[in-house]
Amino acid sequence: MAKRSTLFIRIVEGKNLPIKDITGSSDPYCIVKIDNEAIIRTATIWKTLSPFWGEEYTVHLPPYFRTVSFYVLDEDSLRSEPTLIYVLLTWLKVKCVDGWMNLTEIDPDEEVQGEIHLQISVLGDGDIPRKLCCQVLEARDLAKKDRNGASDPFVRVRYNGKTYESVVKKSCYPRWNESFEFELDETLSDTGLLSVEVWDWDLVSRNDFLGKVLFNINKLQSAQQEEGWFRLGPDKSKHSEYEGTLGSLRLQLRLRDEVVLPSSHYKPLTELLSQSVGSQLNGNWPDFIMLIDETTTAESRQEVANNLVKLFLGQGLVKEFLDVLFKLELEKTTEPNTLFRSNSLASKSMESFLKVNIGHLLLMNFSCVFWYYRCAGLHRQQTESDIIQQSSSLLQSYLSELLTSILQSASYCPLLICQVFHQLYLRVQERFPDPEYRVKFIAVTSFLCLRFISPAIMSPKLFHLREKHADARTSRTLLLLAKAVQTIGNMDTLACCSKEPWMVCLQPAIQQGITQLKDFITKLVSCHESEDLELQTRMSLQCGTMEKEGFLFLHRTKDKCMPMTSPFKKYYVTLSKDTLSYSRTQHSKKSSSISLPKIRAVEKVEEKCFGSANVMQIISSEDSGLQETLYLDCKVRLFDVSLFHTLCLSVWLKACSHNTNTMSCYHPGIYKADRWSCCHQKEKSDSGCDKTRHGVTLQEWYDPLDPDLEAQLIYQHLRSVQQAMRDKYYMLREQQGVKEADSVRGKFSSLLSFCTVIVN
């Protein structure tokens, strides 16, 4: 049994942000932190005080997380401190958020992080005066306040007017091992407080506050002793005078906690659902999928579709599941022009199938069109007609290039997606025999163009095809391209030209595009009959992996001290389902590899070690028992440490999520000059000064399937609509007659029984 927490985040927009540039505007972007750890960075929206992001993320969290922080920053390379304002939400407030949140100015005394290890006890008994003993052992993950990427932390222990202090230089992981004693004042037992504060010592400027912990003496006397790691808190005595005057951020958040049971508990549910798509619908009695379709509300339809698609993918029945939905949708549709245009369960499930399973492969085959992130420079004065003619020519060339890329991608499309579209193609042809052969093509394009390709063209950042949103001029070009593709998908040039006069000049290209798209669909739905099944099989196998590859800078160490010069060398790194391999070139025959089950920790490295915030370490154990550390500098094309975490660290953590021999603590520094740079310990075999983090990961399309979690989510949905399903079942029973409905009564009763048994 495992408890899992998932946070759905949608950063919608901001308004009335403060001016930060001399032009009277700002270039805002957002960073999201979970317990002071940056995990998300949005795109920068240029030159606006009311930015719109519309970016969505799903984050898997450990059940013990405390806060979620949203920071709004200004993209300005001339300032070393770009932070503007932020929103801080505690665990209780995160449960469900939908609306505008006031932004507040960041107070340095509230920006604290880290934990401190303390042992506090009350000594003495009888006639002997009692003493309060506070032993300060160590701290970890303190905030970095100095330019060298560290701090000079000193601890200040105060009680009843008496103060002790102790300092450790150049460390965010100090070990004090100091003990302080105070005379216990019995008269203050009800109100007396023991204060343990951590500060960064500075020779010239003001000392920086790093956090504090308060203890009630009355509770300490009852317990006699208290020991453990305590999270450092902010100085709550201060309050910002600018609260509510620095603009607002519109957020949508939803936190979901699930307790996932062992697989055996979900076997009856998965078997029941598998049987429902395995049997053929005869149109005379209600199917379970039909009941789910009829009772699922619009608000939950997308999530239910995602869960069902993933569950049937794991069962190897996703093609059969989608086929059942196709037939249900076709039975309800009387007008061909409205086919699959609503947000039905069939439409949402097909959309999820394209994204979750294999859609990214298809997108990558025509993503070359986004190299047109440029605008033609005008070096001479031109008339308006010249500009229109030039823009029209450029748009036609971009559209032609895009259509060529789409057409070429048919051969590389995974086998499973070809089979699903083939089934859809046949079902529509049976339901709407069309002498012009248009409806069956439009059914395919309603998913491929309207719900997949066009949105990816308009917002390539949201489909992970580009790291930034396009500027205003390029966005306009992409919007026109997306509309052109949507028009081609509708296969009606006359209607579009009457509604969109600017498309008149594109009519020849659109007409040619319709012919090309028909050829593409014909090839796509017949790929499963192609002689080149070897290529199809290879592409279908790729879609289930989480393989990533590219050039990174590595340094490998086996009981070696760190050299004085830069140790990193450029390697081509490949992360597959089972292995991490790296070589000097992409096609090199000689390479080194690490088996993923042997990886014991994947963690970040302190910035001061290599002068970069984008270095991570992979700690693995060899067959000989020796421990090896591989350092990766992932600085290529990255914005900052938050994006580094999003694109790299999250991937590695998920790849090693099922490893059993993981480390509980590690060193975030390096071993150099006969000591660890993080905690200054001289023993190289020291276990570590910081705890490893396994919990926070970003969900992506190509994540490995988790059948138990999907079954649990479907079960929760069935519980929520149980009464609605029962009412719908009896209504259909009355409509169709008792005799016809008796065949489904047993299955429905089994489902209700399962819902009852699993709760108990």
Task: Characterize the structure shown.
It is a single chain. It contains 19 helices and 29 strands. The protein has 760 residues and is of the alpha+beta class. It has a seven-stranded antiparallel beta sheet with strand order 21-20-19-18-24-23-22, with helices on one face. β14 and β15 (208-216) form a beta hairpin. GO terms for molecular function: GTPase activator activity; zinc ion binding. One of its GO terms (biological process) is intracellular signal transduction. This is RAS p21 protein activator 4.
Which structural category fits the helices and strands?
A: alpha+beta
Query: Which regions contain 5 or more consecutive residues with pLDDT less than 50?
Result: 77-82, 240-244, 281-286, 364-380, 531-546, 636-647, 756-760
* C-alpha Rg (nearest Å): 30 Å
Range of strand content:
25-35%
Total count of strands:
29
- Termini separation (Å)? 15 Å
Number of helices: 19
Query: Which term fits the overall shape?
Result: globular
Mean pLDDT, to the nearest integer, reads 77
Characterize the largest beta sheet: strand count, sense, and whether it forms a barrel. Answer: 7 strands, antiparallel
Q: Oligomeric state of the chains?
A: single chain
Q: What is the spatial order of strands in the main beta sheet?
A: 21-20-19-18-24-23-22
Bin the helical content: 25-40%
Domain PH: 545-661
GO biological process, one term: intracellular signal transduction
Keywords: GTPase activation, Metal-binding, Repeat, Zinc, Zinc-finger
Organism: Cyprinus carpio
